[in-house]
Design a protein that fits this description.
This protein has 348 residues and is of the alpha/beta class. The chain has 13 helices and twelve strands. A six-stranded parallel β-sheet has the order 3-2-1-4-5-6, sandwiched between helices. It has a six-stranded parallel β-sheet with strand order 9-8-7-10-11-12, sandwiched between helices. The longest helix has 20 residues.
């Protein structure tokens, strides 16, 4: 049966990644349906690389979708498409209202918001308690569209890379070589290691392997990346340009033998594409890996050695930046163990 579904996620890259298995689940159930994804422009390259998405629609709250008139514009755009169902993964009233005004027959969203009356199916989840993984919360939201009563497993299906940036970043490297990616930034969204701790990770990689090491980050991370790399073996340590596109970052991560970072989009990209990783997390709500950890590699998450509090705010951390309490001995030991398993995985 022909149908048109709209999936809505308009926040960060990592959040969007954890929504993508819903595309796979719906495609498996409805192979002939038309699947549209409403997102911000910066996640468009990611969505275009994911198997099963027929159309990416751009949400621009600073432009044509700004304010009350923008919501009406978005509602009219969606109404013309005659969608059969819409799922709002990113709960915002300015997104829920256009779905309602567009008269989409089946509208799924959170029951824990005051505007739940705008949905035909409101799912109670209590996400703020972080009792389940974010990906599982997302999968639960699509159950009103599925014939089965069980929640589908999370499956990621990225399409192969079209153009690789590797040779541009390593023009002097041999034809076949291995590399690790270290992403020391976090955008301030979660607790993180110190620059010194990331430098130790680079040193361990240089000592234990013959790999190259690539430091990635945004334009604002350039200074931190330079401090981490200062004085190290320059022919094996590379700073990816701050202007690296998301498409290039996807290809870079897909080809890596290991990615190291905290709770960020690149960590979830690595997990989704099957790249081995080592991630660092605060154990407290809302940063806990129980909700935000890499779904397929949660055994490779390191948390800080603190017992509390259960709920925390990294801007006023009672433990004084808990991840920086991880000892050098612990970091070195866990990274060495991860390298052993990554080597074995590559050997297969």
């Amino acid at each position: 049966m022909s149908c048109k579904f709209l999936l809505v996620r308009t926040d960060r890259i990592g959040d969007t990644v954890l929504t993508l298995p819903a595309v796979t689940a719906l495609r498996n159930q409805f192979p002939d349906c038309h699947l549209s994804f409403l997102a911000r422009s910066y996640t468009e390259p990611l969505l275009k690389r994911y198997a099963g998405i027929d159309e990416v629609r751009i949400y621009d709250p600073e432009g044509p979708h700004q304010g009350w008139s923008g919501m009406l514009r978005l509602a009219e755009e969606l109404r013309r498409e005659q969608f059969d169902a819409a799922v709002l993964f990113h709960p915002r009233p300015e997104l829920a209202l256009p779905l309602f005004l567009a008269r989409i027959p089946l509208r799924v969203g959170s029951a824990d918001r005051w505007y739940r009356f705008l949905f035909t199916h409101a799912i109670r989840q209590h996400r703020s308690r972080c009792e389940r993984h974010e990906g599982e919360y997302n999968q639960e939201l699509i159950t009103p569209l599925l014939a089965t009563e069980s929640t589908p497993a999370l499956e990621f299906h990225f399409q192969p890379a079209q153009v690789s940036p590797i040779r541009q970043l390593f023009p002097d490297a041999p034809e076949a070589f291995r590399y690790a990616v270290i992403h020391p930034g976090s955008g301030g969204s979660a607790p993180n290691l110190s620059g010194e701790q990331y430098r130790m990770c680079v040193e361990v990689l240089l000592e234990e392997t013959d790999w190259r090491v690539v430091l990635t980050g945004g334009v604002g991370d350039r200074g931190r990346m330079e401090q981490i790399a200062a004085g190290l073996a320059s022919e094996r340590v590379h700073l990816a340009p701050g202007g690296l596109s998301l498409e290039q970052l996807l290809d870079l991560i897909a080809g890596a033998s290991l990615l190291i970072g905290s709770s960020t989009g690149p960590l979830h990209l690595a997990d989704a594409m099957g790249t081995p990783l080592l991630g660092f997390y605060c154990p407290a709500v809302p940063y806990t890996p129980d909700r935000w950890g890499p779904y397929q590699q949660r055994e490779w998450v390191i948390t800080s050695p603190v017992q509390g509090p259960r709920r925390c705010d990294s801007r006023r951390c009672p433990n004084g930046k808990c991840l920086e309490l991880l000892s050098g001995v612990e970091l070195r030991s866990r990274l060495q163990k991860r390298l052993q398993t990554a080597e074995a995985q590559d050997a297969r």
